[in-house]
Amino acid sequence: MAFVTFSAARHDDPSGSPSSTPRPGSRARRSGPRRRAAALAVTLALATALAACTGGDPDPAASSTGPAAAEAEPDGARAATPEGGLPLTEAGPPPRPPPARRTRPAPAPGAVGAPAAAAEDATAGGVATALAERVVAPVLVAGDDAALAEELVRLDAAEAVVVAPEGTSVPGLDDVTTVHVDPAAVAPDGAVDEESLAGAADLAVQDLPASGDAETSTGVLALTDPDAGAAARPAAATARASGATVVDAPGGDPRTTSEAVQAVAGAEATATVGLGASFGSPDDLGWRVEAAATGTELPGGGQLALPGKRYVALYGSPGAPVLGVLGEQDVAATIARAQEHAAWYQGFTDEPVVPTLEIITTVASGSAGSDGNYSNERAADLVRPYVDAAREAGVYVVLDFQPGRTDFLTQVRAYEDLVAQPHVGVALDPEWRLGPDQVHLAQIGSVGVDEVNAVGDYLAGLVRDRDLPQKVFLLHQFRTSMITDRARLDTAHPELATVVHADGQGGQEAKAATWSTLHQDAPAGLFWGWKNFYDEDAPMLTPEQTWGISPTPDFVSYQ
Predict the structure, then answer these.
(1) φ and ψ at residue 60, rounded to 5 degrees
(2) Are the C-beta atoms of 131 and 82 separated by less than 8 Å?
C-alpha cells in the first residue's frame, strides 16, 4: 500500500489534459418539488484514494478507471462507496449551465506515495497528505498495485513523490519520475512540522521536472468533516487539487455553521461530494445542500436549531396578559423584552443565546365555540406582526398549539404560511388536548405519540420541500401521562430539533422532581426545556439558578 499524490497533467503535455477533471455525471430525480441530485463521476482518483485506505478492491461502480461504470438509477443518486474505504456521498443542486473551466499551473511534483507498512502509519499518512496539500496535488492511497498503475496511466501522471525511505519499492511507478521523502526525517516525533515540510516540499519540487498546465473544474463542491480526523484529509487534498471548492462541514452537515452555509450558498456548484460516512446517504446530503444553498440562516447563525444554541423565550399570546408575559406589551416592547431576557444568560456560555417568542396561537377555551372544539384559533393577522418583527430583529418564534377536541396536525396545518417561515418552530401543548367527552380544567389532557409523530413527519416534510433550516419541535409535558407511549417518539428527523419542555409550576422541589421524572427512560436525541413562572413559582429561579439545573436546559421560557 502506498500514499501517492500526482500532478494533473504530464510534464510533456503543455496543453493540459482534461482527463483529471471531475465531471458531473448524469442527474437523477429525487422525490419532492424542485428536487434533483446528481451522481458525480468522481475522477482524479478520489475513489481510488479512498478505497485503498484498507487495501481492498474498489467498488466496480467507483473504480480507479474514473467515472462510474453504470449510469445512475433514474430515481436516486448513487454514492461511490469503495468497499472498506471512506465513503463518498455524491449529490448536487438543480442543473445549472456547464461550469466554467480554468487553466492553472499544475503542481510540480507528480505524486506522493508510501509502501504498505508505511501507509498504515499515522506519521506517513500525515506527511503524505500535508505535502499534497502544500503542493496542491491529489493523493492516492494505493493498496492495489494494478489499480495504482491503471490510475496513474489514466491520469497521465509522469511525476511522483513517494513518502517512504529511500530505496523503498512501490509497484506501479516504474514509468514515473519519482523522489522519496522519508516521513521519519520530516516528522521524527510523529508531528508534521510546517517548516520541515516546507523544506521537504522544496526538495521534491527541485528534483522533479517542470509540469505543464492542468485544466481543472470550478463546478464541484467537496464537503469535508473536520471532526472525521485524518481519514478524510487525503480525499480533501485530492478534491482541492482537482479544482473543487473544499468546505468544512462539521459533523457531516453543511447546515451546521454560518461559514459552511455561506460557502455552499456562494459556491454555485454543479455537483457536490461529501467526503466521509458522516454525510449520510446521497438523499440526505442532497436536501441539506439545497437548504444551505439558500443562504438563509437562523437567529444565532447556521441552519441547525440545536445543538450549538440556547433559547430564552417569552410565553403568552398577543393582547392577553393573563396568558403570560408575551401579551403584556406591544410588539416592539415584546421584542425588546425577549432580547433583555436572553441577555441575562449570554454571560454563562459561549454559545449564542437566542431571544425567542413562544406565541400561543390556538388558545384552550372553557366553551365549545362555534366549531365545538374548545379551542380559540387566533387570527393569523394577529400573530403575523410578531413573526415579522422577530425576523427583522433576529428573534426566533415558536407557535404554540392548544387544540382542545381537535387534533394537533389539523391546527398546525391551518397556520402553514407562518409555520413555513425559516425562523418559526412549533410547540404542542398536550395539557390542552381533550378527548371527545372531556373539557378543560376538569381533566389534564393528553395526546398519543402517533399524533405527535404525525406532526413531526409533516414538519420534516415541510423543511425538505421548502429548503428550510432545521425547526424547533417543542413538546410541553409535566406528567408522564401527557404523551402516551412516549418511548416511540420519533426523534430521528434531522429536519427537527425535538425538545421536551418541563412546564410545571409551583415549588422548586416539586419542579425538580418533575424534571427528573421526565428524563427517566426518555428517547435518545431529545433536547430539554424549562419554564419559569413569574407569579406561580415559589420562588422563581434566577437566571444563575436556572443555568445550574442539570442537565442545563436548551430552552428556557418565562410565563
Answers:
(1) -55, -30
(2) no
* 40 close to 95: Cβ distance less than 8 angstroms: no
Contacts for 129 with CB less than 8 Å, ≥ 6 apart: 3, 139, 230, 233, 234, 237
pTM for this prediction: 0.77
Question: 466-482, pLDDT tens digit by residue?
Answer: 999 999 999 999 999 99
Per-residue exposure over 473-482, b if at least 16 CB sit within 10 Å of its own CB, e if not: bbbbbbeeeb
Following CA atoms 234, 237, 238, 241 in sequence, which dihedral angle do they give, to the nearest 10 degrees? -160
Helix (H, G, I), strand (E, B) or coil at 272: strand
pLDDT tens column, 385-431: 999 999 999 999 999 999 999 999 999 999 999 999 999 999 999 99
Domains detected in the chain: 2-293 (no CATH), 310-558 (3.20.20)
Q: How far apart are CA 418 and CA 454, in angstroms?
A: 19
Check the CA dihedral 452-455-459-461 and report its sign: positive
Q: What is the pLDDT of residue 90?
A: 54
Q: Phi first, then psi: give them for residue 342, nearest 5 degrees.
A: -65, -40
Extract the runs of DSSP E, i.e. beta strands, from 405-477.
424-428, 447-448, 471-477
pLDDT band for 169, please (50, 70, 90 cuts). confident
- Give pLDDT, residue 89: 56
